[in-house]
Amino acid sequence: KIDNIDLTPAQIAEFKEAFSLFDHDENGSVSISELGDVLRALGQNPTDNELRDMVNEIDEDGNGTIEFMEFLILLTSKSKEMSQEEEITEAFKILDRERDDYVSLKEIKFFMRKVAHIKLSNAEAEAMLNYADS
């Protein structure tokens, strides 16, 4: 139940975006493999056993995958208060799919298409990057 989770609507929307980014097959749930992708994007490197333990810990319906509500529970139980700088760093890690410490036009376009369902031109993506760099 969403009422039991102490998050603002903006935080829930942000987590929904992250969830959909890593729900590669778009089936409304995150597999153990996809959960590993999420955690690695956030700078962690869990073992397969640790991933299984996390899924078993929060998989309320026992289907071996994590639905969005379970994902929220995992994030809120593992999260701590972050400074704005830490939040920006975490967001950068999610966008930097190639793990090269650089967010490319391709990565911005992918994110906007996948999460916001907006197809950007190269000029629009470039404008976003220029704004972020300023």
Automatic annotation (TrEMBL):
Function recorded in the entry: Plays a fundamental role in microtubule organizing center structure and function. Component of the infraciliary lattice (ICL) and the ciliary basal bodies.
PROSITE patterns registered for this protein in UniProt: EF_HAND_1, EF_HAND_2
One Pfam family here: EF-hand_7
Domain of life (superkingdom): Eukaryota
Family: Belongs to the centrin family.
Listed GO MF terms: calcium ion binding
Keyword S-adenosyl-L-methionine in annotation: no
SUPFAM superfamilies, alphabetized: EF-hand (SSF47473)
Source organism of this protein record: Euplotes crassus
EF-hand domain mapped to chain residues: 10-45, 46-81, 83-118
Name this polypeptide is given: EF-hand domain-containing protein
